[in-house]
Design goal:
Strand content: 15-25%
Largest sheet: 8 strands, parallel, barrel
Radius of gyration: 23 Å
Structural class: alpha/beta
Shape: globular
CATH class of the largest domain: Alpha Beta
CATH topology of the largest domain: TIM Barrel
Number of helices: 14
CATH architecture of the largest domain: Alpha-Beta Barrel
Bound molecules: ligand LIB3CWND, magnesium ion
Strand order of the largest sheet: 1-2-3-4-5-6-9-10
Oligomer: single chain
Low-confidence stretches: none
Length: about 350
C-alpha cells in the first residue's frame, strides 16, 4: 500500500507531478476509431470539435495482423492533428497481450504530450493499475513529458467488478471507469451475445388477470418488460467512481442501426450518474451529445428552484412540489453540467441562454 505521504510523489525521477484532482472535462461521447483503417483515419481531422473525445483503438476490433499498422496510424494522427477542444485518448491492448509493451513504449515518446487519457482494458485489480502507473512515469520521465497521462480502466471481468474500489483508488492518474458489457458478459458466463442493451428473455411479467371464479388466468396475454442486465454493475460503478472523485461511463452499444435503443441505454446511464458513453459509429456521437446534456426542461426547473431557494436552506413549494436543501443540490448538478457544456458547445449555449431566467 502506498502511504498518503507518497501518493502524489512521481513514480520516476523526472516524471510530472501527479494531479491532485481529475479535471471535469465534458466527455459525452468517447468516439472510437481504428487508426489503421485508412477510410476511418482520414475522417478524424474533420471530426475534431464534433465529439468531446476521439479515441484511437488498438485493442479488440483491430485484427492481430493490423496491430502495428493501427499503432503507427495513431502516432501519425496524433502528430499531425490539432485536437483543439477535443480530448485525444487511446485504448491500448490488454496487459496480458504481446502488443501492450510496444503500444506504451511507442506512444508515450511519440505522442505522449498530445494524449490526454490511456484506456486500459480488462483491468482485474489494483496491481494492473500499479503496473501502468510505474511504466508511464518511467516513459514520461524519459520523454520529458510535463503533463501526467491519465488512466481510464474498463470494467469487464467479474474480478474487476469485485475489486472496483481498489482499482479506483490505485493511482492519482485514475480518470474514470467504463463498463465493457461484451467482455463482462463472457467472463461472467452470462447467456447473452449482445454488445450491451437489454435482453428479451430478461424480463418481468405483469400479474395474471383474475378469472370469474376468483382464480388466475395464467395463460392470458400479459405485459412483459425487458430489464437491463447491467443495472447493478452501472450503479456499483457510479458509487465507486464518485467516492474516488473520478468519472463513470457506459461503454459500447453494438446495435448501430437501433438508434432508439442506443439512446435509451445512454439515457439510463446518464440518469444513474454516468457522464458519457462510447460511440462506435459517427451516428452514435449525436445521440450521446444529446443524451448526456441536461434537457431544457430540467435546466429551466433547476434554475427556478435555485432562485426560489435563496441561500439553499429551508423548504418552498413550486408547482405543488416541495423543494428543499437536498433538491436544490440536485438542481445544482444539472445547472453546473449545463454551464460546463455551454462553455464548449455553442449550440447548447444558445439553447440554455434562451431560457428565461427566473426572479430570485
Ligand atoms: C461498426 C463498424 C464496423 C461499421 O463500419 P461500416 O460498415 O463501414 O459502417 P458504415 O458503412 O455505416 O460507415 C459509413 C462511413 O462512416 C465511416 N465510419 C464508420 N465507423 C466509423 C468510426 N468509428 N469513426 C469514423 N468513421 C467511421 C466508414 O468508414 C464509412 O465511410 P465512407 O465509406 O467514406 O462513407 C465501424 O463503425 C467500426 O469499426 N466501429 C468501431 C468498432 C470498435 O471500435 N469496436 C471496439 C469497441 S467495442 C468493444 O471493444 C467491446 C467492449 O470492450 C466490451 O467488452 O464490451
Ligand atoms: Mg472489451
Amino acid at each position: 500500500m502506498r502511504t498518503a505521504k507518497d501518493f502524489f510523489t512521481p513514480l520516476a525521477v523526472g516524471a510530472p507531478t501527479p494531479l491532485r484532482e481529475i479535471p471535469a472535462r465534458p466527455s459525452r461521447a468517447i468516439h472510437f476509431f481504428d487508426p489503421g483503417n485508412e477510410k476511418m483515419a482520414a475522417k478524424i481531422p474533420a471530426m475534431v470539435g464534433t465529439t468531446d473525445v476521439l479515441l484511437g483503438n488498438l485493442e479488440d476490433a483491430v485484427k492481430a495482423e493490423n496491430k502495428e499498422k493501427a499503432r503507427n496510424g495513431l502516432v501519425k494522427i496524433g502528430q499531425e492533428t490539432d485536437f483543439g477542444p477535443t480530448q485525444f485518448w487511446t485504448r491500448i491492448n490488454s496487459l496480458d497481450s504481446p502488443w501492450v509493451l510496444d503500444d506504451l513504449t511507442t506512444l508515450v515518446p511519440a505522442i505522449g504530450d498530445k494524449l490526454d487519457v490511456i484506456m486500459v482494458p480488462k483491468v482485474q485489480g489494483a496491481e494492473d493499475i500499479h503496473y501502468i502507473d510505474r511504466i508511464l512515469a518511467q516513459l514520461e520521465a524519459k520523454a520529458g513529458i510535463t503533463k501526467p497521462l491519465q488512466v481510464h480502466a474498463i470494467l469487464e471481468t467479474a474480478r474487476g467488478v469485485a475489486n472496483i474500489e481498489e482499482i479506483c483508488a490505485a493511482s492519482p492518474r485514475m480518470q474514470g471507469l467504463s463498463l465493457g458489457p461484451a467482455d463482462l458478459a463472457a467472463d461472467r458466463r452470462m447467456k447473452t451475445t449482445r454488445v450491451g442493451g437489454p435482453h428479451p428473455g430478461y424480463l418481468v411479467r405483469g400479474d395474471a388477470p383474475r378469472t370469474d371464479d376468483g382464480g388466475f388466468a395464467y395463460d392470458a396475454e400479459r405485459a412483459t418488460y425487458q430489464q437491463d442486465l447491467y443495472h447493478y454493475t452501472i450503479a456499483r460503478m457510479v458509487d465507486a467512481c464518485v467516492m474516488h472523485g473520478i468519472f463513470p461511463y457506459w461503454g459500447p452499444f453494438g446495435d448501430i442501426k437501433d438508434t432508439v435503443a442506443c439512446e435509451d441505454q445512454f439515457r439510463n446511464a446518464f440518469l444513474l450518474g454516468c457522464v458519457g458513453a462510447w460511440s462506435l459509429h459517427p451516428v452514435q456521437i449525436k445521440i450521446a451529445n444529446r443524451v448526456f446534456a441536461p434537457s431544457i426542461e430540467d435546466v429551466t426547473h433547476a434554475r427556478r428552484v435555485i432562485a426560489a431557494m435563496g441561500d439553499g436552506t429551508g423548504a418552498v413549494m413550486i408547482d405543488g412540489k416541495m423543494e428543499d436543501d437536498a433538491s436544490v443540490k440536485q438542481c445544482k448538478v444539472q445547472v453546473e453540467l449545463a454551464e460546463q457544456l455551454a462553455a464548449i458547445d455553442p449550440e447548447l449555449k444558445d439553447l440554455y441562454d434562451a431560457i428565461e431566467t427566473p426572479e430570485a
